[in-house]
Amino acid sequence: MTTVRLPAEIEQKLDSLSRSKHKSKSDLIKEALEVFFNQEKAGKDSYEIGQEYFGKYGSGIGSLSINYKDKLKEKLNAKYHTH
Question: Cys bridge to 11: 3, 6, 16, 23, which one at CB 3.0-4.6 A?
Answer without folding.
Answer: 6
